[in-house]
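Fig. S4 source data, part A: sequence.
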Amino acid sequence: MIRGPVDEALNSGCHGLAAVHDFRVTTSERSSVMPLDITMLLSLVLLLAGVVSGIQLPFSGKPMIPSPISHDDVKYATGFTLRHIFHHGTEELAKLHMRKDVGPSYRMASGRRSFHISSQLKTVTRMSERDPDFIESYLHYARTKGAVSIDFDWTHEDIMVPDITDRDTLVEFAKITADAYVDNPEGSDWIDVGLPYNETGGFGWDSNGLRGHVFVDETNTTVIIAIKGTSAALFHSDGDTVSNDKINDNLLFSCCCARISYLWSTVCDCYEKSYTCKQSCLEGALYAEDKYYRATLDIYRNTTSLYPNANIWVTGHSLGGAMSALLGRTYGLPTIAFESPGDQLAAQRLHLPFPPIPLNETTIWHIGNTADPIYMGVCNGPTSVCWLGGYAMETQCHAGLECIYDTVNDKRWHISISNHRIRPIIDMMLSYDTTPKCVAPTNCQDCYDWNFV
């Protein structure tokens, strides 16, 4: 329990009152056996006055005003264990949504059964109405022709958020994102939690779709959703989700459907002519039911149905980091994204709500390092590894705070795609004694040479 000045004052007052009460009892007992002369009586009155004057009573004199408690002083640490895994299908299995429940004794790939996270109290600004039905109806309306801007009701709430100034907390979050890539854990059978639809034939751990690992604390009051990132040989990982991951990467992080050369196959039909793209077409493609953003919304909806009163945090790495940041922006959730490509362009195309506060007060943190070309937005052009691997990674702007480890100058790292992987990032963070300062990006604009009509 967190104790403050008020608690100490109350305890001190109680002890003082107890002392006065005991003294009076003793005096009354003595007076019953021996009379008090006037000198003794005056001495007793003076003594009582001295005792009482040293007590701050709530009903006498000037009230004691406790010193204010800073949000930075209210901190808490708790353990999280993996409870559930959601798998949301995409493309031809877009309606498939499965859940696997995991036992608390399961030991994850990192060798851990639980993760210990430090948090602190922070005032956040987010929409007062955050029911998934309301949010999704707004997102649908915002993309309709002739839609007008909406003035939302915003609320200020004091909630616990991850303590990003604590190095070990950031490392724990990174390990949680790493576990989102691991093999199928032991546990119960998959449960169909989608619509009245049952398509489990051929469904497997590596089936096309998006995965979300759900970690919960001991009291079920805080939940972490970890979104799986890109599987690709380019990033030293593989699996049957590779082709779908690439489609979503190229849709989210390119200027226009991955149309970066006439030799490339586009991932949507929005390209019109040289450096001209249809805006409404792009917005519809991002929000399509068979793409990852809609799958992320469904994972959140199902998580909150299990834990309706919990405080939700989101995390992820790479593509998973971008999806977690978009989800965090949608619902006003504290989010830690590792080595995410620029997500600001996608957030704008999806018409996600931005609270009317300075960006430096947001609770979306993008953790990265200067030697990662994807995070820094420089993995593009005909000679880049991303281009050669078929990835059109053209964005660099993040819709949140950037917390950047300067590994190029501090560690003499060279810019390389290997510095994008989560395992080296964990080792890198452990090599620092402190966490980087998180700042709002300035004067950042993606696709400035394109015309969106």
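Fig. S4 source data, part B ends here. The radius of gyration is 29 Å.
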